[in-house]
Amino acid sequence: MPPSSGACIFCDIVARRSPAHIVYEDARCLAFLDLFPFTRGHVLVVPKLHVDRLVDLPPEAYPALLAALASVCRQLERLTPHYNIASNQGELAGQIVFHLHFHVIPRYTGASPFHDKPRGRLADAEAHELLAALRPTERT
Known about the structure:
single chain, alpha+beta, HIT family, subunit A, about 15% strand
């Protein structure tokens, strides 16, 4: 499915016009490390087809998106078996990039990773370490 030709950072990542640390890819979906993670290993899972919201995604694309999300979760379980899966739908819900995406946020402690302070940028060295740890296997 072709990405949007408009100004969308996630479409640019899908089309390889913008760099990203990719942890999963198939014909319909892509997953990459969040550049401003809540926690170590925070991943974004996106359909390659540009839609703003879940209700805009064609129903025939649901299985591929859910399969990609499950594969990424299996990969992240190498870091921790605890994680949040979230999708902000609309500006008032906190959506910043208007391309459907799911956050998979690993949890390492009981403390909430969600806070008002600015999130730090992912360092390249940590990204490369995470990419090695999350490398897909036959099971994912």
